[in-house]
């Protein structure tokens, strides 16, 4: 099996670094319009750098790690050259299968939405695909992407929501960790220690949600003792519109994803 990737930036690079650790790098091709970046990625991982997008078209699975606004240029170059023997996996936010298919009629597409946590093999990736993708091909794509974390199949109509929750979500979590650390510093804790306490608290809390089988609401209630410190903090968060701010942020990101797909 040959794997190719067009684009070695933050997201494409994160996914392909994980892939390069599991698969034969001599059969992994990468290219990038930023030649220096692409060559540096190849030198780091052992993957094969190729000069043009067309040079990856002999691969069985071709990742398109290209931002939505640049997809048209890429397909203008290779759209008619993609064989129906390859599976093309697009990371472009908001761009639907129908639109991808219009750009490259012979190609067969899987849409994916990863997140930046793939850099530490803790990514949350959603995929969706049409009837022209065989089940064994979808299974192989999931196996490839599992190198970078958890993978789930979703209906395409949910991809904009996925983009907002797991695609954009890490940025919101980083802001929360930063805010917690700022508060800890305000209360007297050294900055480096504050980041450790805030980040580990978020990490452990997420693990409890994933492993306990309890809802976040149930877990929150477990921490809130009557007349205790935590319920006072919860009340302060509610007073300042914490949950509404999060809901508005996810909704705004989802709406932006919808706009990018038009």
Can you list the strand order of the major beta sheet?
A: 3-2-1-4-5-6-7-8
Global shape: elongated
pLDDT < 50 runs, ≥5 residues: none
| Helix-strand string | EHEHEEHEHEEHEHHHHHH
Give the end-to-end Cα distance, rounded to a whole number of Å: 34 Å
Number of strands: 8
Helix count from the secondary structure assignment: 11
Overall SS class: alpha/beta
Helix coverage percent: 40-55%
Mean pLDDT: 95
Integer-rounded radius of gyration: 21 Å
Largest sheet: 8 strands, mixed
β-strand percent reads 5-15%
Topology of helices and strands:
Elements (H helix, E strand, L loop, with lengths): L2 E4 L3 H13 L5 E4 L3 H11 L2 E2 L11 E4 L3 H11 L8 E4 L6 H7 L4 E6 L9 E7 L5 H11 L3 E5 L5 H9 L1 H18 L4 H22 L3 H8 L5 H11 L2 H19 L2
Parallel strand pairs: 1-2, 1-4, 2-3, 4-5, 5-6, 7-8
Antiparallel strand pairs: 6-7
Helix pairs in contact: 6-11, 7-8
Overall description:
With 262 residues, the chain is α/β, with parallel strands linked by helices. Helix content is 53%, strand content 14%. It has eleven helices and eight strands. The protein has helices at residues 10-22, 35-45, 68-78, 97-103, 135-145, 159-167, 169-186, 191-212, 216-223, 229-239, 242-260; strands spanning 3-6, 28-31, 48-49, 61-64, 87-90, 108-113, 123-129, 149-153. Strands 3-2-1-4-5-6-7-8 form an eight-stranded mixed beta sheet, with helices on both faces. Helix 4 (97-103) links the parallel strand 5 and strand 6 (108-113). The radius of gyration is 21 Å and the shape is elongated. The two termini are 34 Å apart. The model has no long low-confidence stretch (mean pLDDT 95).
């Amino acid at each position: 099996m040959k794997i190719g990737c067009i684009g070695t930036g933050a997201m494409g690079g994160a996914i392909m670094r994980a892939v390069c650790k599991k698969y034969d790098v001599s059969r992994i091709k990468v290219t990038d319009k930023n030649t220096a970046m692409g060559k540096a990625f190849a030198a780091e991982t052992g993957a094969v750098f190729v000069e043009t997008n067309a040079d990856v078209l002999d691969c069985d699975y071709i990742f398109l790690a290209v931002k939505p606004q640049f997809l048209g240029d890429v397909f203008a170059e290779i759209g008619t050259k993609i064989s129906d023997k390859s599976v093309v996996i697009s990371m472009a936010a908001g761009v639907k299968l129908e639109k991808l298919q219009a750009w490259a009629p012979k190609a067969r597409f899987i849409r994916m939405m990863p997140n930046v946590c793939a850099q530490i093999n803790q990514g949350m990736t959603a995929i969706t695909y049409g009837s022209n993708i065989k089940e064994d091909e979808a299974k192989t794509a999931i196996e490839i992407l599992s190198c970078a974390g958890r993978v789930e199949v979703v209906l395409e109509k949910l991809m904009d929501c996925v983009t907002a929750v797991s695609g954009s979500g890490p940025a919101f979590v980083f802001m929360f960790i930063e805010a917690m650390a700022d508060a800890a510093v305000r209360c007297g804790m050294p900055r480096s220690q504050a980041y450790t306490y805030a980040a580990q608290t978020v990490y452990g809390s997420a693990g409890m949600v994933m492993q306990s089988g309890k809802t976040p609401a149930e877990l929150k209630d477990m921490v809130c003792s009557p007349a205790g410190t935590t319920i006072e903090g919860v009340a302060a968060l509610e007073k300042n519109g914490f949950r509404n701010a999060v809901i508005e942020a996810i909704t705004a990101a989802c709406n932006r994803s919808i706009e990018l797909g038009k």
